[in-house]
Amino acid sequence: MGSGELRIIPIQGIPEARPGDSVAELVLAGMAASSLAGEPGDVLVVTQKVVSKAEGRLVRLADVEPSPLAIEYAARWERDPRQVELVLRESVRIVRMDRGLIIAETRHGFVCANAGVDLSNVTPGYAALLPLDPDRSAATIRRELCELTGWEPAVIISDTFGRAWRNGIVNVAIGVAGLRPLRDYRGLRDPHGNELRVTVIAVADELAAAAELVMGKTEGCPAAIIRGFAYEPGDGTARELVMPPERDLFR
Amino acid sequence: MGSGELRIIPIQGIPEARPGDSVAELVLAGMAASSLAGEPGDVLVVTQKVVSKAEGRLVRLADVEPSPLAIEYAARWERDPRQVELVLRESVRIVRMDRGLIIAETRHGFVCANAGVDLSNVTPGYAALLPLDPDRSAATIRRELCELTGWEPAVIISDTFGRAWRNGIVNVAIGVAGLRPLRDYRGLRDPHGNELRVTVIAVADELAAAAELVMGKTEGCPAAIIRGFAYEPGDGTARELVMPPERDLFR
């Protein structure tokens, strides 16, 4: 591994998560199956889906009673009214609701499609909701990994989000533990001596995006290790990745 | 390098670009200085800044005559009226113009802050504009690398963009050559048998984000190689990464 080089290592063989499972134990099972050992300075990225399943954040659609709004919107755009109902329940603010889409703010402050409610990669007939507190989920994984093995990586919970103006979805960080999610270059100078005034890099989002490249959507690889990235340790929270309302031009 | 693993390798020692330079030759000089050899299947990510400099897309601020709108807006928000003028000239549509910010659509269709006009990492007193045709820039780099050495990586031109609703900026792809920028999972099935209906991943943006992690902003490392990613070869264009107006809820 060369100087300054980064490795992104998929963790294959992670068992399917069931409610009550320890995500740390699932990750360790996959690492054992792949003969992977953790190293100091690693970043572990785990998809939201495995965390939500382990935390029991699954809802049986047959149990959901849709509201009149959900029924009407679903009928108009050929969607499942029970999923629309779940989206409305998971939302604290609707940003856009048009053309069958719902872009909403979740209680965590994230603005995303369907408030994170997702029917893919779950048992048919169920929907997965976002973890209640993804930062806490990340901290739990980190603590348990350390207790079980002494390995204490920075942990990122990732999810795939759409973006305004850009096509396609990308992985972003919705929970973090052990690292600062933003890298702040403000006040530093570039090689030309210009002061960098607005450069705050969302490194946790870039780490999540990098991890997605080895995960794929169909192969059931819900975690990856990023090795060689000199992250800033600290008690970060994914809330730092949310644009503060007073600076948000797109509320 | 394990199965399915990705490596992200910074290319150090790339000389400062001057108008008329061949970016391919600059990259090769850096690779020689770092004892790096290209391999089949590599993705090369190059920052917009080095491309813009090599293509002479630099403007001396002292030569810019600001319009009344630029003067007024700059005065109100304590900005440089000449930079504001350049932003207006590089824009085909203003999406938001408030609180000192200008979010604009460029002629390429990208929506970003300042229409890509940037004062960092350039000689003080100058501004860098986006390349006129970043796809063509990427194709030229790719062709020249192949002619000079036989190495024909997929090429991505990257730039750092802000995002609606999220704090911090991330690298995205503004030009591509030799790869499909989107990976389309629609119609495939997840391990549970659910058909994946809306999953189109912006892999070129994720590759650009991954590359940023080894580049930094202050260290003058404007390129990286991503090795081990099974991209889909093809004549892609970064325009595929722009949300089509008819599907864009945030125009």
Overview of the structural elements:
Two copies of one chain form a homodimer. In chain A, the strands form four sheets. A five-stranded mixed beta sheet of chain A has the order 1-12-2-8-9. In chain A, strands 4-5-6 form a three-stranded antiparallel beta sheet. In chain A, helix 1 crosses helix 5 and helix 3 (68-77) packs across helix 4. Chain A has helices at residues 23-33, 48-54, 68-77, 81-90, 134-149, 203-215, and strands at 6-10, 43-47, 58-60, 91-98, 101-106, 111-113, 126-128, 154-163, 166-177, 183-184, 200-201, 223-227. Chain A folds into two domains: 7-54 and 131-242, CofE-like (60s Ribosomal Protein L30, Chain: A, 2-Layer Sandwich), CATH 3.30.1330; 59-126, CofE-like fold, CATH 3.90.1660. With 251 residues, chain A is an alpha+beta fold. Chain A contains six helices and twelve strands. Chains A and B meet through strand 1, strand 4, strand 9, strand 11 and helix 6 of A and strand 1, strand 4, strand 9, strand 11 and helix 6 of B. Strand 1 of chain A pairs antiparallel with strand 1 (6-10) of chain B, so a sheet runs across the interface.
Structure summary:
Chain A is an alpha+beta fold.
